[in-house]
Fold:
Amino acid sequence: MRTLCSSTLIGEVFVVLFAACVAMKMTDVSTAVIWGVSGAVMVFCVLLCGVITRPGAVAVGWALQLGLFAAGLLLPTMYGLGVIFAGLWWCSVHYGRKIDVIRAERERQTAAA
Structure:
C-alpha cells in the first residue's frame, strides 16, 4: 500500500504546484497566500508519504483529497482534478491493501516451506 499511496501523493504535489502557477494568473488572491498554502500542502503530501502505514494516515489522506477538491472554489478545474485524485487515492488504498495481503501470504508460505 505504501508504494501506491506515496505515488498518488507525489502526483498531487505536482498538481498543487501547477495549480498554484495557474492561480497566480487567474485569481485575485495574493501571490504570498497562494504559495504559502500551496507550499504547505506540498510539504504535507511529502511528509504523509513517510507515515502512510501508520494508523490514521489513510484518513488524513482522505482529508487531503477533500482539500484538493475544495480548491475548486478558487480554480474550478480543481473540482475535476480532485475527483480524479480521490479515485486514484481509493484505488491506491484498496488495491494496496490487497497487495499487502497477497505479499504476507506468500511470505508465510515461503517460511512454512
